[in-house]
## 1
Amino acid sequence: MQTPYYLLSEKALRDNLAVLRGVKERTGCKILLATKAFANYELFPIVAEYLDGVTSSSLHEARLGKEEMGKEVHIFSPAYIPADFPQIVECSDHIVFNSFAQYERFKPLLNGRSCGLRINPEYTEQDHAIYDPCGPGSRLGITLDQFTGSLEGIDGLHFHTLCEQNADALAHTLEVVKKKFGRYFSQIKWLNFGGGHHITRKDYDVELLIKCIKHIQDTYGLQVYLEPGEAVALNAGTLVASVLDFNQNGITNCILDTSAACHMPDVLEMPYRPRIVGAAEPNVKPYTYRFGGPTCLAGDIIGDYSFDQPLKIGDQVVFEDMAIYTMVKNNTFNGLNLPSIVLQRLDGSMQLLKQFGYEDFKRRL
């Protein structure tokens, strides 16, 4: 198969979903797929076997969830676009607002939908500023000093503070949320813990998560929602690329047919260094290369890696954990083609889900 392509694993996806279903079964909480991380709708029927629906950030995500999964659809936006809102109401079951003003503005159009407010507990334990919704000056969520409106018509509260974190960070956050906003819990029906829970990571403390969920449900009688994105498809896909050429300039640059800027944007945005099958840190193994993409962007650099054997033109390079925040973010900068999407079924067979070309590039311009 021509590279580059994303290779998704049905087995790995189902293994993750089984862990999440176990949390649901032991607690009675509801778990939603955050489509901002993983939106391969061809696999939504599989996700629907295990989870309760999707959570969305826009009309298009909400519509995709309604049409392709057909279960609960939740939505949050920092500010809703008025022209989109009637369709959002048609697609969504829960609508979460970022301010009292937004709720009041759209209240006449809600048609009985369950409504919530996003709160900002002003507490964080992460160090990725670009993904920190509770940092100073954040536009996301209502802080306690601004929490002055009536909760009439409001069914729930939503908070999101985590990013790739364990249950201890959630437990600490819950203490702050209870202290600041617990006085309102008697007026609502549900509490949404947001996303960022790395529940399917091997070292994740599932027992502590379950304890947190049960505490809120048993103490306050609230329905708890979780909306992980990464945990659903964590380590459930790779990106397969090929070596195109080499360039010597004080180091050995290895140019691939995939791009950080186009096909794995978080490498530059977060930033982070993706794992590669068979590779180590630079200079650990005999042959070290700096991987870069074929675009004209000087900073289209994936990272430095070392290998046991020298690479040659045509060799394949496999990037791990590429199901999440890749296909939902990729782009066609420089006219670079989008990678195909391939699914490995449980029986080992390969199914081509999507292939892209010139018309996909042209339609985006």
## 2
Amino acid sequence: MLTLKKEKRYSAAQMLLAALGGAMVALATAVLLLWVILGPYVLSLAGAWGLVRTRFVGEYDPDEVVDAALNGMVAGTGDRWSYYLNAEGYAAQNQRRDNSFVGVGVTVEEAEGVGLRVLEVYENAPAQEAGIVVGEVITAVDGVSLADKTLGEGTTLVGGEEGTSLTLTVQGLDGSRREVELQRTQVENISVVYELLEGETGYIQVKNFYTHSADQVKAAVEELREQGATALVFDMRNNGGGYVDELTRMLDDLLPEGPIFRSEGKEGRETVTDSDASCVDLPMATLVNAGTYSAAEFFAAQLQESVGAPIIGVATSGKGYSQQAIPLPNGGALNLSTGRYRTGAGVSLVGTGVKLDVEVEQGEGAGDDLQLQAALEKVREKKET
């Protein structure tokens, strides 16, 4: 005779307790993993956020709290090159790096304790139409002071949606201040301009190393050679850098066979990028200044190292870290220094910048570009030897 085993029945309370027990075990496991992987710091941050949400009695904007916390975290690293962008700022950065962005049409650098110094004003952009000129300082946006803001925070305030208005407080070259009302528009930026100067020297100004800049430099070199250029001067002044792959493509097109870029991540593994044998066999020189950052100063250093191209101008920033924009769940991103880079021969620019062949200020008068004159003299000497 067959008999069926009687099934054990569980009450609803027992099943609930079992589910809660499983959830507690899963939670404990997750906390333990966080502790092992990230340490106590992330739990402290999470705990602080939990206290704000459950215990704080005042009114607050959750986005502003999170943004402030992330800004503070990056500032705590002490790295001047890393910064946090909120969702709006990250979207604007992505547009700008495509050499097409919504904004007022300026390139800026941090003027410590004051605001954002204007390095370039784009043609036909709102800033140009409003009379803003190179060298002026944006000290506030819609009444919000930029004196204590990072470069990333400041550019985020200036950026925004197309068609929206903003008021900039601008400190003029004479020290006076004025209010300028602008409307954000779509700005198209041409990253490379060039012309053939007297003496058959091609002049190429590179404004950034973002999308299509390497192709534009290659096209400029080819066009200038067709026009009869027998030497090249690259103007990297007020160039804030950009993408590593655009940099290495430019160098590969210009330089002979050999290592042109070395990078190293947190784990210490080195990656070496080499140029092939195809190159541009012309005398070259590079112009730099205090606004020459990152890929721009590296470009100058590598041309000098590989083919002896002289560097003319004033001391550069001395940047030797590369940043990666890492998206966050809130739509923003951390632009975090994730790599160190060195020249093909292994030289770091950190703290030193480039090694100048000719140190000379730009000159005060309009059209009185002493740095360019010095560069033209250098390539003329190289052509004669």
## 3
Amino acid sequence: MTTRGQDIASVLKRQIEEFGGETSLTEVGSVVEVGDGIAQIHGLSQVGFGELLSFPSGVVGLALNLEEDAVGAAIMGSDTEVKEGDLVKASGQVAQVPVGDALLGRVVDALGNPVDGKGPIKTESARNIEVVAPNVAIRQAVNTPVQTGIKSIDGMIPVGRGQRELIIGDRFTGKTAIAIDTIINQKGQDLLCIYVAVGQKQSKVAQIQATLEEHGAMEHTVIVAANASDAAPMQYLAPYSGCAIGEEFMASGRDALIIYDDLTKHAWAYRQMSLLLKRPPGREAYPGDVFYLHSRLLERAARLDKDHGGGSLTALPIIETQAGDVSGYIPTNVISITDGQIYLEADLFNSGIRPAVNPGLSVSRVGSSAQTRAVKKVAGRLRLELAQYASLASFAQFGASDLDAVTRGQLERGQRLTELLKQPQYKPNSLGQMVASMYAAVNGYMDDIPVDRVRDFESSLIGFLETSKAEILQSIQDQKDIDDATEKALQEAINSVKKTFS
């Protein structure tokens, strides 16, 4: 067989044309040790902190420990398919999560993959999971309220858009209930919600999803779930992923609310990862940077100024205490980062006061600047009267018969206010309903109503306003204030209900 010169020439010509093809350099290492969701990898000398690594089985890893002769990586999924000797490729990319309106109404995992069985999420946008918090210079003051629909919170511990307000309490004191009621209250409003479940049972997350769907609140909500059965790295990443989704809404000039339920389990997951990565343990075996873990997350909540779109991201982190101990390591860390806390007390919860908000230990550092004028007018005396009631009640139990008329009046007013602030779950109040019932209580219209009938009277009043005097509620809702005409009409409505109430 002879080779013709023209054949050789055509082969050489084709090779010369293809010589300029693109080449890519991929750094490759090998697994030297694997176990408990952590892989030690040798050979990745150029890898960066937080960079994604790909294993042959398709599992993704996250580079966290950059040592002289090895890289410690957290495996984002099951480690059973990762073996010693496996070749690991560096991607050159940090962890990202898909973002945008396509996620509304969906349940995703910590990497943004859908887990609700509703098909793929069609969005082109993605954001880095870890970013630097907005600069102080581009933030503006917090002065617009987040209406939770819960009287005791909106009246005494107001939450503003761009604020970080901690919800803290023991197990089974209604922390998640407050968060879910707040999400439900945003139906038809302009606040988008992200609920991040960290270390929760899968059944609880499914129950929350069903509750939100039942009340029509899933349309404006994204659920990011890293369940108790998921690997610790997924639980570690979930709050940052949820925050990135919320930041996309904030960057587009809209308002978003994110709930971290809860950061105690987030700290546990980080402690587990850190110990397995052989980082030196500190107090309670947490690593030394556990404060930075939460501060860099919560500092990303902000209200941007007009030059940067004017959007906001409000954070409601949840912390679980042990036997009411707010002086624990993680609780004190997060209290020092946030702009106030809503403290839920087990004794109040068990005595039937729900939501079990303790007005003495709860505080909002934004204060009344995050309240509408209508709420400010009616709730200004609410906290003071409840504080006076709490101090008098401890003395009155020793000798109730010896009390003067003024003290007895304060005690009875306090009992009625405490009863009024009780609220069933999944039934948040609108602004008009809240203002009307508080107005009646603080101005003495309920003083002659038996304590056990206060909530019945409130229901009668709201029912009457909704059916016969809807313009009063609408006026309060639209103006966010009570003018003289509205106040007079409200007084007449309250008196009308009192005449027929028995």
## 4
Amino acid sequence: MRKIQLSIAALATNESQSNNFVVILKEEEGHRRLPVVIGGFEAQAIAIAIEKIKPNRPLTHDLFKNVLIELKVELKEVIISDLKNGVFYAKLVCAKEDGTQLEIDSRTSDAIALAVRFSSPIFAYDFILQDAGISLEEEEGESTEKQLANKWETYPTGKLMEALDEALENEDYEKAAQIRDELNKRK
């Protein structure tokens, strides 16, 4: 399976689900985005690492990093390895001092929090981006916003509902109408 390298493009609140956030991962060499819904604690852990904030005492992800370092285990990469029933699965790919490679099952949000702390690359298999990714490909003469309006059919229904809530909250009635039309096509 082909791995696609990703980076964190944004971390935002999830308007449709209180106490949840969305981390948007973007293709390093492409135009697709992968939205991953995460919990508030995980979002905070990612944000603290991105902003390089040093808490007085180690948080859970910092503790895990410290343990790996003490055991001389390096986090080589994170792979978002599967998507089942709308849930992403991830692996921590680690290397021991003797060269032995380990793959450790992880929640995607925790894997991202650790990747940020270790400055490790994040990957997803291509089929995941094909199934759950959103394409923001720039076409000649067409803005990204206009492309999004034309690409609503690529959104899963749950993400469309979230986008509709956000469009209405921002009083972007043109976008809301486009989303509504796409939702009506699916009925």
